[in-house]
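Record 1 of the preview.
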Amino acid sequence: MPELTLTIQHKVGLHARPASLFVREAAKFQSNIMVFHDGKEANAKSILSVLALGVNQGAQITLRAEGPDAEMALQALQALIEKNFGEAE
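->
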């Protein structure tokens, strides 16, 4: 089961608009995708679960995917996070 750890650089963390974009991207894939932060876990396709993690700027999250397109899902989410959710820094 592939996984990767990333740092959230967005100024509001993984809240509101960034969380919405994150969940929308995750929903494009068949694989089950989980997000882990600070001892908590969330379904990456559930906006309420992702918001409940309370991920702030500078926090590290771990993404874990399982399914037929797991690698592609992680790559897409990594690209979204590394591009700061499409916003300038």
